[in-house]
Every structure is written in C-alpha cells, then in structure tokens.
Amino acid sequence: MFWQNKKIQAVTIKTRIKLFSYHQNKDLTAEDVRAARDYIAAYWQKLERYHPKDDGVLIGVPKPYLVPSYAEGHEFDYHELFYWDSYFMAQGLLDAEHKELVLGILEDLVSVFKRFKIIPNASRLYYTSRSHPPFLSSFIFDVYDAYDLDHKWLKNMINVAKEEYETVWMGARKPNARQVYQGLSRYYDFNYLHDIAETESGWDMTPRFNRRCMDYLPPDLNALLYKYEMDFARAARIFDDKREAALWEQAAKARAQAMDDLMWDHLRGLYYDYNYVKKKRGNISSLASYYTMWAGATSDEHAAEQVKALKRFEQKGGVATTDALPIGQYVLGSMPTQWAYPNGWAPLHYLVVKGLERYGYHEDAKRIAMKWLKNNLNWFNENGVFLEKYNVVSPDKPPAKGLYPSQTGFGWTNAIFERFCQEYIDKK
C-alpha cells in the first residue's frame, strides 16, 4: 500500500512533530491551503473518463465522468462511474468552469437508470444487483441552484428521480424489495446477500449491521428518502402544484415520525439502525444519525441532543465514523470494518457539517470542518497525496484497513476539502 513505500517508511519523529503544526485553534489561511488546492485542481483531469459505448462489462454512458481515484501502477484501476462518489465529487466542482462536466455526470447517472431501472453501485453489469446511497434528487437540485437552470430541465430530471424513488427505494418485492416495515426502507441486493447489500449502503464494511444488513432499517437511507420527498415537494411548488407538494410533505412527515418511533434513542440522543426482524434497535452509535440533520428530517430538540452526542465521535482529526468499539475493529467473521472508529471519511464530514449548519450550530460546524481540513492538509504536506479516508483519532497514523486496498487521490476527499476551503476560508 502507498504508505508502505520508502518515502513514508522514512517518516521520522521530526515529521510526526510537524504533522500537527497547525494549532487546532488557529484558522487556516488561503496561503496555507494554496498548494493543496492547486494539486486538487490539477488532479481532476487524472480522474476523467469517457466511455460512450459498452466495453465488456463496463456500461457505456453518454458524457465524460469522474472515477474515484487514479494512481499509476496501483492494483485498483477505476474506469467506472460510481453513484454516491459522483455526488460528493460534484460538491467541489459546482462552478462555471466545471459546469459541462457536472451536468454530464448527472446525465450519465440518469442514462444508466433509464436503461436498467436502477442506478447501480457503479457502471458495470455485475453491479446492477444493488444501488448506492440515493442522492439523485439532491444532485438535481444542487445543479439546478448552482446553474440557474430552467423549469423544463428540472421537470424532466425530477420525473426520473420520482421513478427511481418509486421503483428502487419504495419497491416492496424482488428485484427491489427495499420497503419492508412501517413504510421504511432497507439496503438490499437482488441476490439476497447481506454483505453485498452492505455495499449498497456505501459503508462496506461496518459493524452497524453485524453482517445482517437486510435485517436493518437504516437512519441514513431513510433520511435520504425523506430528502427525496421534500425535494419533490419543492419541485411541485416551483411548478405551482400545491396539492402535490402537500402530499409529498405529508409522506415526509410520516417517514420522520416512523423513524422517531423506531430509531430514536432518548437516552443516547441518537438515531440507530432498527432491526425489524428482531424488533429492536442496533447498538452501534454512528454518524448515520446525522443524515437526519442534513436532510432536515429531525426536530430541533432531537438535533440539540445529537449535537450533545458529538463528543462520542469528535477526535483530534475530525469525527470518527462510529464511536469506539469495545470488541475492536472486526465484526462477525473477522471482517475489517473500515467504516468505523478510528476512521473518518470526507462524505460523512460534509453531511455532518451541513447538518449542523442547517440547524444553526455554526461554531460546531466550523470546528469540525477545520479539524478535517487540517488533518487532510497535514497529511498532504508530509506525503504529497490525499487519502480515501483518514485516521481521525491518531492523525499521524494511517487509517484502519478495509477489505480493499486504500487509495490515494482521492475524488471525494479532494472535493470536500475544496468545498470547505471555499466556505470556511474564502468567505471569512
């Protein structure tokens, strides 16, 4: 792996002392992040791919897109379009310079859905048994707002998102048996394999589901579907259909109530995965809870409780994906769980920070964003790369390993670093 090369093996005590050279209470300046942002700006061209025709199992899409990572000679060599990776990479590219690329990526996702009636995990035929965390409606509105697009474009795109919502995420039987209990949905795999369903969650692998992913109703997924419902309500109001808007708002309210009833833990002040088979909540505290704040799916009171609970996750280098696990970093079957303590991930930092901002916790949002920026920046300054994930507990150490080799680059890390720089450095 990349940190095993001679350069990083030669990291000395002096380097480790330098690692946290930015004092935690000192704001970063534009000059501090200039080299890192220049690296990111130049790196996008390494990630761009264009495959308009099928090539073996690789699905052709009409426009150029971005892959998550590229490193010459690395055993992982991406060529496929990933669903939720694409959404988070777009968060650092919503400007005039990248308009054509971002619109093209969204068009590619839509084209795959129209062909397969699912947006797969990634654009390969063998990924079509499952999807990925659903961000289509959010992607549509981010692009609509950033580029001031017209109502015709919005209506066409929202109609696709509605079909995805109804067919994939609200499906009650195979091939999309996701809506299974009290109107709430689960992650799923057409082959009915729990570990593959867990890859649909994006959290592959995590201790949250105890390797029984399809037995659980996750707060992150259902918060995303709440967001779809509220996005559909927003679209209906733009199209001056107040009746339809009210119906979508009612659906969202019912979902939020069901989530509160099943997933909210009053003692711990967080939402938990609900095992609908055993009729009880899981016991892994995770950042999945904070999707509810990002989506606006929780009350002010529950948001305040979640802010208090941040201490379970907040570390020197950002927020850990779960709280510390007494049983260690492995789930049933000794499987590495990279989506867990002590690792932190860019998309989860983005969602947590945006959720805090949405409910008015601006200082907490800024503190976490700055910790994440400094963690990313210090590793970049020492090693010349951005990582797929970081050790937020001991930022001078590599992240905990997962099932697949860690990659450098890295698309969504680069994008969220750039986005946080725009919002917490450029605008101050």
- Low-confidence runs: 1-22
Structure annotation, total helices: 15
Task: Give the overall shape.
Answer: globular
Question: How many structurally independent domains?
Answer: 2
Query: How is the largest sheet built, in terms of strand order?
Result: 5-8-9
The CA-CA distance between the termini, in Å, is 38 Å
CA-atom Rg in angstroms:
21 Å
**What is the percent of helical residues?**
40-55%
How would you sum up the major sheet? 3 strands, antiparallel
What is the averaged pLDDT score? Answer: 92
Order of helices and strands: HHHEEHHHHEEHEHHEEEEHHEEEEEHHEH
Give the amount of beta strand, in percent: 5-15%
Total E-strand runs: 15
* Structural class by helix and strand composition: mainly alpha
What does the model show?
With 428 residues, this protein is mainly alpha-helical. Helices cover 47% and strands 7% of the residues. The chain is built from 15 helices and 15 strands. The strands form 7 sheets. A 3-stranded antiparallel sheet has the order 5-8-9. Helix 4 packs parallel to helix 15, helix 7 runs antiparallel to helix 9 and helix 9 packs antiparallel against helix 10. The N terminus is likely disordered.
Helix-strand blueprint:
Blueprint: H1 6-9, H2 13-19, H3 30-47, E1 48-49, E2 65-66, H4 83-90, H5 99-116, H6 136-147, H7 151-169, E3 179-181, E4 184-185, H8 194-200, E5 216-217, H9 219-238, H10 242-263, E6 264-265, E7 270-271, E8 274-275, E9 280-281, H11 291-295, H12 300-308, E10 314-315, E11 318-319, E12 330-331, E13 335-336, E14 343-344, H13 346-358, H14 362-383, E15 390-391, H15 411-426
Antiparallel strand pairs: 1-2, 3-4, 5-8, 6-7, 8-9, 10-11, 12-13, 14-15
Helix pairs in contact: 3-15, 4-15, 5-6, 6-7, 6-9, 7-9, 9-10, 13-14, 13-15, 14-15
